[in-house]
Amino acid sequence: MTARHRRGFTLIEVLASLAIALLLIVPIARIITGAAGAFAGLDRSTDRRVNMQAAMAVAMTLDPLQPGRREIGDFTVLVEPYDFERSAALTEAGWQLYSVTVRSTADRDKDVMQTVCLGRLQ
């Protein structure tokens, strides 16, 4: 071979290197896409957790518990008596079980949190 033929790459070498590059790029792109999706899911989960903690803090500010609807900050709190098979015995002792539902004021159809709380009868 002359020096002129040794200076460049052959077409086979270029195609082989391109194929190897593609074989490496596809899994790397999938890893990056998966990591980005996981990060977005984590971000949404964190937002939900922060929203839930804020809703729980709002629900805990209700003292004394009384049936009704209250708007506190970004939340609407709905307190209703909760009936169950031993409600009469609880009422005799001066207590009432309440269902506390916290909803976002912006999205009234979506419950952020729902729980039951024990409160003294007024």
Note down, in words, how this protein is organized.
The protein has one domain. It contains three helices and four strands, in the order H-H-E-E-H-E-E. It has helices spanning 3-6, 11-60, 87-92, and strands at residues 68-72, 75-81, 95-104, 111-120. The longest helix is centred in the first third of the chain and has 50 residues, at 11-60. Pfam families: N_methyl. InterPro entries: N_methyl_site. This is Prepilin-type N-terminal cleavage/methylation domain-containing protein.
For the biggest sheet, the summary is: 4 strands, antiparallel
Average of the residue pLDDT scores: 86
Taken from the alpha-carbon principal axes, the silhouette is rod-shaped
Structural category: alpha+beta
Q: Please give the alpha-carbon distance between the first and last residues.
A: 104 Å
Percentage of residues assigned to helices: 40-55%
Strand order of the largest sheet: 1-2-3-4
β-strand number? 4
Using only C-alpha atoms, the radius of gyration works out to 31 Å
Strand content: 25-35%
Briefly characterize the structure.
Helices cover 49% and strands 26% of the residues. It has 122 residues and is an alpha+beta fold. It has one domain (8-120).
Sum up the structure in keywords.
122 residues; 49% helix; four-stranded antiparallel β-sheet; alpha+beta; rod-shaped; 26% strand
